[in-house]
Amino acid sequence: MSVSSLPERLDWADHAWSDPDGGTILLHGVLPTVVYPRIMRPRETWHALAILDAPDVVDMWVQEEKDEAESPGVNLAHGLISGGSFGIYLDEITMLEDVKSGSFPDPEPRRLHRNAERHDRPVYFIEPTADDEFWNEHLTNEAKAASHWKKLLGMISLGGKWRKRVKKNIFFAQKPPRGISPNYGSAAVLAATWWDLNEWLVGESVVKARDLRYAERLRGALADVRTRHGEDAVLLLPLFLPHRNAILAALENLPEAEEITSYPTHSGNTEEE
What are the C-alpha distances in Å from 183 to residues 8, 24, 177, 236, 258? Predict the structure, then answer.
């Protein structure tokens, strides 16, 4: 797949990227807090899971599960009052009929992580940890970009920016799979709008540097899976649907693979496929 032949931005199909060194990364687009019906879940065989986050995201998921058990809906309530683009996203997506949303922890990545645990499949956390010098530099660049006075001033008119982005992203909407509510198309538009405003906040150069590092580590994870499964190795990557094409483009640049090891999983979980 070349950069010029990237899929439609909000295309629902999973997309496979073939590494010239062997193996495949299967990119599965998800929407924040949205539970997918079975027909929209990955159907291909996969050998390992990649998460576009740091390992401590699992601790956050576990805490959110505990919070939900004690007080159902508490995480959604916190998200709604937090403000910013994510608060707007939650407010609008939870009003869509026939779309199960506002679920915490983020349902699809968490479900796949539990699936990997159940079947003893390796899990690779693609975001570097806090002791990574280059990643710390990246986080500093993100913070500087987001705190620039022009961006802070722009946040005052966030509602207007949101409405303009929604109108633009409507043209990228794709019809959901057969039998799925068309409101999932609206949900994808809202997710794209939230994502665009997040990316605008940190700036294009910082975003591209981040995605390139992700691509390096994804290739490294696939290389590790390849040592066990050869050229048939499949690494499943759930990621936010509006982010997929940027990661595909970064992979197409064939950055040098960064060595990365998987984190141990613990079997005994009863989560379904």
Answer: 18, 31, 11, 26, 39
Let me know: does 193 contact 169? Beta carbons within 8 Å: yes
Q: Per-residue confidence of the chain (273 residues) as pLDDT tens digits?
A: 555 579 999 999 999 999 999 999 999 999 999 999 999 999 999 999 999 999 999 999 999 999 999 999 999 999 999 889 999 999 999 999 999 999 999 999 999 999 999 999 999 999 999 899 999 999 999 999 888 877 777 778 899 999 999 999 999 999 999 999 999 999 999 999 999 999 999 999 999 999 999 999 999 999 999 999 999 999 999 999 999 999 999 999 999 999 999 987 765 443 444
Virtual CA dihedral for 43, 12, 53, 17, nearest 10 degrees?
70
Give the angle 209-211-217 at the CA atoms, nearest 5°.
105
Note whether 246 and 197 are within 8 A (CB). Answer: no
Would you state the structure tokens that stand for residue 41, as one six-digit string?
Answer: 């879940």
Give me the helix-helix angle, 158-169 and 183-202, nearest 10°: 130
Asked if 127 and 52 count as a contact pair (C-beta separation under 8 A), the reply is yes
The β-bridge partners of 17 are 25
Question: What are the φ and ψ backbone dihedral angles of 16, each rounded to 5 degrees?
Answer: -100, 130
The first and second tokens of residue 146, run together, are 């987001």
Q: How far apart are CA 178 and CA 227, in angstroms?
A: 38
Cα→Cα distances 36→107, 186, 200, 244, Å? 8, 14, 27, 17
Q: Name the DSSP letter for residue 98.
A: T
Measured CA to CA, the distance from residue 132 to residue 140 in angstroms comes to 12
Q: Which amino acid, 28?
A: H
Asked if residue 197 lies in contact with residue 165, where contact means CB atoms within 8 angstroms, the answer is yes
